[in-house]
Design a protein that fits this description.
The protein is an alpha+beta fold. It has one domain (about 1-235): outer membrane lipoprotein receptor (LolB), chain A, CATH 2.50.20. Helices cover about 15% and strands about 50% of the residues. The chain has helices at about 1-5, 10-20, 50-60, 135-145; strands at about 40-50, 65-75, 80-85, 95-105, 110-120, 120-130, 155-160, 160-180, 180-190, 205-210, 215-225, 225-235. A twelve-stranded antiparallel β-sheet has the order 6-5-4-3-2-1-12-11-10-9-8-7. A hairpin with a 4-residue loop joins β2 (about 65-75) and β3. The protein is globular and about 40 Å long. The protein starts with a helix and ends with a strand.
């Protein structure tokens, strides 16, 4: 709060938006349910930024647009998972992109990347993940879909070169509405876990997975500081 108050509103909005998009969680295997999650898939979402900073961001930065969550084979025993965020308010090529190269069986990240380009600001980072049993947000969501854990459990996430312990919490069954259609879902929440010898992640992630064979993510919320990023599936398969 003090940091935001010391910088201009546009910069504060940009800082929070980028933080929302670069610091989310991933999952660790617990119970594999034997259902069929696609290994070649593209899901399209509408996104909008809520909360106080989300409202202010609409004056200076995009606060809505399209998100594409994808997974595709990358040769051999690897998969590429990625989330691409764009906005109709942006110019051609402007984006936020986050993804990873994961092992096909375990879903562990071997490489991770993030990039963004907006107006005169840009960044492009790719890193090799040397730590074992680590995932990023996109591969984490994919793994939760594969496992559908029934009990709370801990995991390790990588974000922007740092590793955080988090806990995944099953929140039970819920109904979500997509284009006026009610979809039965499984609800999960991921939040930081306090540990004396590790960094603490201050945000949270909530996902609603349809009760179909693919455990399709129909809605996702990422919360950080004074803002929250919400992604809603455009059309249920």
């Amino acid at each position: 709060m003090k940091l935001i108050s010391r910088i201009p509103v546009p910069a504060a909005c940009a800082a929070v938006l980028l933080t929302l998009l670069v610091a989310p969680p991933a999952a660790h295997a617990t119970e594999y349910q034997g259902h069929s999650v696609p290994q070649d898939e593209e899901l399209v979402y509408d996104w909008h930024l809520g909360g106080f900073v989300g409202v202010m961001a609409g004056l200076f930065l995009p606060n809505h647009g399209q998100g594409v969550l994808s997974v595709s084979p990358d040769g051999g025993d690897m998969l590429s998972t990625e989330l691409l965020i764009t906005s109709p308010e942006g110019q051609e090529g402007e984006h936020w992109r986050y993804g990873s190269l994961i092992t096909r069986e375990e879903g562990y990240a071997r490489e991770a990347w993030n990039s963004y380009q907006w107006r005169d600001k840009s960044d492009d980072e790719r890193a090799t993940i040397d730590e074992p049993e680590v995932r990023d947000i996109v591969s984490g969501i994919y793994q939760i879909r594969r496992e559908l854990p029934r009990t709370s459990h801990h995991m390790r996430i990588w974000s922007d070169g740092k590793i955080y312990p988090v806990v995944v919490i099953p929140k039970g069954e819920d109904m979500r509405k997509i284009n006026g259609r009610k979809i039965p879902t499984r609800h999960y929440k991921v939040r930081g876990f306090r540990s004396e010898d590790a960094r603490y992640w201050k945000g949270s992630l909530e996902i609603w997975l349809a009760r179909d064979a693919a455990a399709t993510p129909v809605e996702m919320h990422i919360e950080r500081s004074l803002a929250n990023l919400r992604l809603e599936l455009q059309e249920f398969p």
